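User: Design a sequence. Structure:
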């Protein structure tokens, strides 16, 4: 039972991350442990699940519509799509989180709330390094973007992607996803002009080596980004973990910003939720 809800959990001893022996039971324990900081970033947002029920080496697939067998007490909502409205899951509380975690999935969310899909409340930059560039170079680009956003009165926060890169997030208001996407592209183009040997605003593959792709396109209304604190379907149980700007400034090697499930509870104890300001009323900036 989880907060009065009967919740069948399965295959708790199954190893999902063979490189470390991390089991499904440990995945569920992780999510229960970080629920207090994770749930506010999921609440009132339609969730896309990137499922990996047999681990990251098995079949990996997106589930966007409400999965078959979803309990009737799990909140769902109709959301707009180009091909027509569809119904998606909202993870609003601990029982819903544990039910979703039992599916073995990454959590991905839009940059808007289900009650106001026409207005974006987040801007996101996904900084993706092309080898031999790494998260170290992402941090350099992130610091430039932080200052550029601040010049427009928008305060940015950082988290690791849980893979190779870094995500920048900021709270915004009063603009559509289309407008936010346009503004994000403008800044990505500016970043490339300011740091031509480091930043790139186009995904063109032959331009990628040694540079950081500033992916502005995830601000499109249809796109989703890995939610803060989600586990990733990687060889090891890495997490999309919020980081301090001091950590970004001091990152001299990729390992400095490589966080696993077991690292997160101590970080939350030390820092609280570093992304909590995104959720505070009145914290959102307006696009120029």
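Assistant: Done.
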């Amino acid at each position: 039972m989880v907060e009065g809800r009967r919740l069948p959990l399965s295959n708790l001893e199954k190893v999902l991350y063979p490189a470390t022996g991390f089991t499904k039971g440990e995945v569920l324990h992780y999510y229960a442990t970080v629920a207090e900081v994770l749930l506010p970033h999921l609440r009132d947002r339609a969730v896309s699940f990137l499922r990996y029920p047999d681990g990251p080496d098995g079949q990996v697939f997106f589930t966007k519509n409400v999965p078959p067998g979803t309990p009737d007490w799990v909140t769902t909502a109709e959301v707009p799509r180009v091909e027509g409205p569809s119904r998606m899951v909202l993870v609003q509380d601990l029982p819903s989180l544990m039910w979703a975690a039992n599916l073995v999935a990454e959590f991905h969310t839009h940059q808007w709330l289900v009650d106001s899909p026409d207005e974006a409340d987040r801007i996101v930059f996904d900084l993706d390094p092309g080898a031999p560039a790494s998260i170290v170079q992402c941090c350099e680009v992130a610091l430039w973007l932080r200052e550029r956003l601040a010049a427009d009165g928008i305060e940015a926060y950082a988290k690791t992607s849980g893979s190779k890169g870094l995500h920048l997030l900021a709270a915004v208001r009063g603009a559509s996803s289309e407008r936010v996407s346009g503004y994000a592209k403008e800044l990505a183009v500016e970043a490339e002009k300011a740091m031509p040997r480091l930043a790139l605003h186009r995904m063109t593959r032959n331009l990628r080596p040694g540079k950081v792709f500033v992916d502005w396109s995830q601000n499109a209304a249809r796109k989703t980004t890995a939610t803060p604190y989600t586990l990733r379907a990687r060889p090891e149980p890495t997490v999309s973990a919020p980081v301090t700007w001091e950590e970004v400034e001091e990152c001299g090697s990729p390992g400095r910003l490589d966080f696993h499930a077991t690292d997160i509870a101590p970080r939350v104890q030390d820092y609280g939720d570093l992304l909590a300001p995104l959720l505070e009323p009145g914290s959102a900036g307006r696009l120029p």
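Residues 24-42 form the longest helix (19 residues). The CA atoms of residues 237 and 260 lie 5 Å apart.
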